[in-house]
Amino acid sequence: MRYTFDSRVRYSEVDHQGTLTLPALMNYLQDCSTFQSEDIGVGLSVLRERKRAWLLSYWQVEVRRYPKLGERITVGTLATGFKGFFGNRNFYIDDENGNRLACANSIWVFMDAEAGRPVKPGEEEIAPYGLEEPLEMDYEGRKIRLPEAAQALEPFPVRRAHIDTNEHVNNSQYIQMVMDLLPGDFPVHRLRVDYKKSAVMGDSIFPKLSREEGRTVAELCDDTGCAYVVAELK
Questions:
Q1: What is the C-alpha to C-alpha distance for residues 92 and 75, in angstroms, rounded to an integer?
Q2: Is the model's pTM score more than 0.85?
Q3: What pLDDT sits at residue 184?
Q4: Cα-based distances in Å from 144 to 137, 172, 226
Q5: What is the DSSP letter of 140?
Q6: What is the structure's pLDDT at 196?
Q7: How many CB atoms lie within 10 A of CB 204?
């Protein structure tokens, strides 16, 4: 079952050029999935009562054009498959004329929130979403090749503003952390993000950055060098 909501690009969501930022774009996608879950009766409070949660494991995002301040947009999502612990979901953003501005693929893992481990969702958790054919896009594998060498950057703490209702750093907050590592205006049109483990209050982020031909790779790690998140930007 395809789900959409309409919006308008706000001043609080744009950069100094009046263009929607990448983290704000990611927030729209995340909000769309949340709105759908709430509207079909399997939202945050319902899953919390069942001690369950969907956690994002992987993003692949293609941005064809970033909308400008004041533009009217439609944000959409559709479930494309469920297998074992995992759910696959596509997203898109269109302008008011129906032109495709961005599309994305994502992989989510269903978690036993109390035990902290993956669990297979029941029919009552997945049937309300229905299933649709995947969007046409250039699907890439989720494994991001790590560079041979990367520059270690200044560590920083996880702050309260980074934390969401799961008591973890929110998915889009990691994207903002990555963007803050990049120099000046860095146009991103292809993004892949592999979420390895969750950072929480009290943790510190130890970032590493590498720039190669045609891509930049950012690793957000703990103090032992294990990655919370690996992101590839093109």
A1: 6
A2: yes
A3: 77
A4: 18, 18, 15
A5: -
A6: 95
A7: 12
User: pLDDT by residue (tens digit) across 51-73?
Assistant: 999 999 999 999 999 999 999 99
Digit-coded pLDDT (tens) for 95-116: 999 999 999 999 999 999 989 8
Mapping DSSP to helix (H, G, I), strand (E, B) and coil, where does residue 132 land? coil
Ramachandran area for residue 116 (φ above 0: left; ψ -120 to 50: alpha; else beta) = left
Residue 160: what are its φ and ψ, rounded to 5°?
-60, -35
Both tokens assigned to 83:
């297998």
H or E stretch at 135: none
| Residue-level length of the chain | 234
In angstroms, rounded to a whole number, what is the distance separating the alpha carbons of residues 213 and 74? 34
Q: How far apart are CA 115 and CA 231, in angstroms?
A: 28
The residues near 1 (Cβ < 8 Å, ≥ 6 apart) are: 40, 78, 79, 128, 129, 130, 132
